[in-house]
Amino acid sequence: MRPLTNDETKTFFEKLSKYIGENLKLLLDRPDGLYCFRLHRDRIYYVSEKIMKCAATVPRSDIISLGICFGKFTKTGKFRLHITALDYLAPYAPHKIWVKPSAEQSFLYGNHVMKSGLSRITENTSQYEGVIVYSMSDVPLGFGVAAKSTSECRHADPMNLVCFHQADVGEYIRNEEQLI
């Protein structure tokens, strides 16, 4: 476990700010204590400072993970957000998309959201903005990127894409064979 370098921090925070904007500060200064991000084996973990200090006594080679994995750096240096961060990012997301019950399963299978499956979208969502995809019962389903702005969605055809799929909670089931 080590702190992030300046380049890693910049790349990571740019990705997070795409989904939660200025609410990034709320992740670090929480009412239940201070939290921080640490890098371990190309993965970034979100961990409280109390637990991090306790883990400092354990050798690095013995630590498998610590805290919540927010994502990993690829070999090319880009950051890929994991679905495990969804529960921590969803409350702070300014841009959201709600899908109809008929489109939930399609999204959970890894497909993009079409206009016919769109129920609601937050106002002032611009094109290519990071969004959190919700079910109609306000359960976060995954991450996406808005393919169209809010105003463009109103006049789009039912078969047009409105949200590009990035990650969803169904990945656990689809990637089960790789985990074993």
Task: Based on the model shown, name its key terms.
single chain, 180 residues, alpha+beta, Nuclear Transport Factor 2, Chain: A, Archaeosine Trna-guanine Transglycosylase, Chain: A, domain 4, 2 domains, six-stranded mixed beta sheet, five-stranded antiparallel beta sheet, 8 helices, 31% strand, elongated
CATH superfamily of the largest domain: PUA domain
Shape: elongated
Helix content: 25-40%
Strand order of the largest sheet: 7-11-10-9-6-8
Using the 3D structure, state the CATH architecture of the largest domain: Roll
N-to-C CA distance? 25 Å
Total number of β-strand segments? 11
CATH class wording of the largest domain: Mainly Beta
Task: Indicate how many domains the architecture comprises.
Answer: 2
Largest sheet: 6 strands, mixed
Q: What would you report as the Rg, rounded to the nearest angstrom?
A: 18 Å
Uncertain spans: none
At the third CATH level, what is the topology name of the largest domain? Answer: Archaeosine Trna-guanine Transglycosylase, Chain: A, domain 4
Element order: H for helix, E for strand:
HHEEEHEEHEHEEEEHEHH
Average predicted confidence as pLDDT: 89
- Count helical runs: 8
Structural class call reads alpha+beta
- Percent strand equals 25-35%
